[in-house]
Amino acid sequence: MDLARYVVDAVLLEKRSYRDVATAHGVSIGWVAKMLARYHAGGYQALGARSRAAHVIHNRTPIQIEDAVVRLRKQLDDDGLDAGAQTIHYHLTQSGQPGVPSVTTIWRILKRRGFVTPQPQKRPRSSWIRFEARLPNELWQSDVTHWQLADQTTVEIINFIDDHSRLLVASHVVRTATAHTALATFHAAARKYGFPAALLTDNGCVYTAAHRNGRQALESELLALGIVFKHSRPYHPQTCGKVERLHQTLKLFLAKQSAAHTIAALQRQVDRFAAIYNDARPHRSLGPRTPRDVYQTRDKARPTAPKITLANDTRVRHDLVGTNGVITLRYKTKLHHIGIGRDHRGKRVIILRSGQDVRVITPDGDLLRRLTLEANKLYYGTGKPPGPPKGRPLGKKNRATVYDGPTQAFTM
User: Fold this and answer.
1) Does residue 393 register a pLDDT over 60?
2) Which of 6, 109, 174, 405 is a good FRET partner for 322, with 20 to 30 A between their CA atoms?
3) Within 10 Å of residue 140's Cβ, how many Cβ atoms?
4) Which residue, 258, 259, 254, 244, is CA-closest to 276?
5) Could you count the other beta carbons within 10 Å of the beta carbon of residue 127?
6) Is the separation of the CB atoms in 270 and 168 below 8 Å?
């Protein structure tokens, strides 16, 4: 503005020509004429910088549409549901309202109205590494979360979710989650949706007793049904990220509801959430589809592992054969080393111990080793003579000592 005012004063007060003033200050004659025209129209105040934005935006979203977006945003937020641009676009499309703007336009409306705060410090979505089961019922995830009743009593909610479709197959409120309540919730979900091929959980006592050198009810049941049981890495909840994210959505919804006074009242709220989550709310990772739509459009996976029935005193452990072809098993405070063979190193095995009787099988049910533990014996070789050194062919003498003994069969 200082230069503009100086130019105006030079022409009007000093009576200098447009060309002389423009040449002296390195500006165009047209710019000098423009500043004088502004001065005559509005005085010195009119010489300030002006916005270059268009006075009229012909393709701007009508104000009625913007108001509808804002109303839906507030309604979803009051109900404790996701209220992002994709969700708003889905609901506007389902309502049949004409002229529904794109997801990007809705995001810009929310930003312009102050509902969205940019967060440039967040990791870009392109950097995320995702895993998703290829079919419904190929993998379920389960976890337990906590909530409080109106009198501050803490209760627990057991959730089972389908990894492929994000369908919430079961959500059960209990006073305290136990192995038997988790198993009952699992069977209730299976009666409605069928058994999954695999189940993924954390290492909580509700799901496994491996840290107590024991066997838990759910573990035995899954082995008997031929369902693969997987556990996340300790202190790494990202492995069960889908069910962990479900807990966040569920608690956001419950926080907007009236505090429940009883477990039955809380269960009704959870059931209402499950209906909205499965059938009325599009999941962001699924595009403009609900979990129910995705679950019903594809064939369902089924359990494929061998069915193994265990005795009551059987202990089950999943392990990997070491690089030396040996596995370890602790029994009565002593660590026993059991040779499986270098040909099996790195392979996943299931160790079944019933008293002192030990069986080592593959996940497909093939028996690799069977033996009886002895109190004073800590190493159990394979019973095969050592092979020739690496890189040297078998000679006649070595060929004559190749093990060719009988194999043991394992019937399930």
Assistant:
1) no
2) 405
3) 29
4) 254
5) 6
6) no
